[in-house]
Amino acid sequence: MSSSKYTFSLATATLSLIIVAGCMFSDVESAEAGWKASVARANITPETKIWMAGYGSRTEPTIGKRQDLWLKAVALEDEKGHRAIGFSSDLLGIPQSIYNNVCEELNKQYQLSRADIMLNSSHTHSGPVLRGALLDIYPLDDEQLKLIEDYSNELEATPFVRLTGEALNALQPVTLQAGTGSTDVAVNRRNNTESEVAALRERGDELKGPVDHAVPVLAIHNSSSELIAVIFGYACHNTVMSDNYLHGDYAGYAQAAIEEAHPGTTALFYMGCGGDQNPLPRRDVKLLTVYGNKVAQAVDEVLADQSRLKSLPAKLETSHQFVELNLADPPSNEELTAIAENDKRGAYQQRWAKRLLSEREAGKTFITSYPLPLQAWEIGDEQLWLTMGGEAVVDYALGFKKMFGDETWVAAYCNDVPAYIPSLRVLEEDKVRLGYEGYSSMIVYGMPAYRWADDVEDLISKTMTKLVADVRP
Hints:
Layout: H1 2-32, E1 36-43, E2 52-53, E3 64-65, E4 70-77, E5 83-89, H2 96-110, E6 117-121, E7 127-128, H3 142-157, H4 159-169, E8 172-182, E9 186-188, H5 194-203, E10 214-222, E11 227-234, E12 245-246, H6 249-261, E13 266-271, E14 277-279, H7 286-303, E15 310-311, E16 316-328, H8 333-340, H9 347-361, E17 369-379, E18 383-388, E19 391-392, H10 394-404, E20 409-411, E21 420-421, H11 424-433, H12 436-444, E22 451-452, H13 456-471
Parallel strand pairs: 3-12, 5-6, 11-13, 18-20, 19-21
Antiparallel strand pairs: 1-4, 1-8, 2-7, 4-5, 8-10, 8-15, 9-14, 10-11, 16-17, 16-22, 17-18
Helix pairs in contact: 2-3, 2-4, 3-4, 6-7, 8-9, 11-12
C-alpha cells in the first residue's frame, strides 16, 4: 500500500516537473523538435543545341528557349532525424543509369538509401534527350550522341549531388501542411480525339474515359510562418507544344506563376499517373500560360483556405522495392526484318528493328523482364505519397486511392522511366487494336518486346501494398 502511494507521488512529481519544463522550454522545443526542411535549385538549361526528347517527328535540335529548365530539391528531416530528399526536374524522364548513379553517390556522401531518394521528372516534351533513353526515335549522329552523354554526365555528377548537399546543410525548422485542389486540364486521350474536345467542352458535354483531376499540395512554412516551398502534382502529359524551343511546358509555367505570386517561395512539380492523359486542345503557345495558370490557381485556392489544409506531425517513413515486370511477345527475326525493310513504317520503328536484328546477330541476349522502382513515403500519420517508375496510366492512381484512401498522392515518372506502364484494362484493349500505351509504345522505348505480360498490374499492386504496410506498420 505504501509502495503504491510512493509510486503515485513520484509520478505526480515527475509530471509536475515535465509540465514546468515544458513551460520553460517550449520555445526551444519548437525550434529543435518537429520538421526541418530546406530547398535548393539549379538551372539545367542546355547551353548547346541538343536534341530534344518526347516527339519523334522532330528533325533538328533546339533552336531556342521559352523558359529555363530547372532541377529543384527539397530536403526533409523528421523529429527523429530521418532525412529524405525529393527532386523536381524539367526533364522527359530520368533513365535507369542516371538514377542508379545518383543513388549510389547520395548513399556514399549522405547515407541516403533508395527509399529516401525521390527523383521525379515532369515529362516535359521540350527538354533534352538523356543517355540511353528513346534513342531509336531520333536520327542522332556521333556529335549529338556525345552532347547527350556529356549533358547526362554533368547532370548526375553536379546538380543532383550538389543540391542534396546544399539542401541538407540548410535545414531549418518548418511546418508541413497538406491539401488537395482540382483542375480540369487533363483529358483521357484514349477516349477523346483532339479535334472533338473543344466542341464537347463548349457544349458542356462530359468527356469520356477515366481521369484524375486532383492537385495535391504540400505547403512548407518556416518558423516565421513564411511560405518557403510548395510541392504540387498533376496527372497530365506536358505536351502542349511540339516545336524546338526549350521550356517546362504547362508544369513549368505553373511553377513560375506560383513563384511570382509568392515571392521567396520555391515551387516544385511532380507528375502523376498521366500516361494516357493529355492537355487538350494543344499546340498553341498561349495554352502554356492558360493551362499553367489553371493548375497554379488550383494550388493557390488550397493555400488560401486553411480549412483545406491539414498539419502533418514530424514523422517520416520511407520504403522502396524493385518489382520485376515480365515482358511478353518478343518480335521474331522475320517480323523485325519486315519492319526494317518497310519504308511505310516510321523511321524510328525501322531503326528499332535494325538495332535488334544487329544485336541478335552479335549474340546479345535480350531481357525478358525489367526492374521497375516503386516507393512509399508516409508524411505525418496519414499522408501517403506513392511513386512509380515509368509512364503509368491513370488507372494506377485511381486504384491506389481506392486501396489506401482518397487523399493518397501517386506520382509516376519517378526514379526511372523505361516505358509506359499500362493497367490490365489498357493492356487488354491494346491487344485487340494494337493501341499505343499498351503495345506500340514499347517500340518507342526500344524494348525487345511488344508489350508487358498480363500480370503487370497485379505485380505492381501487390508490391505497393507491401510497401504501404512497411510505412504503416
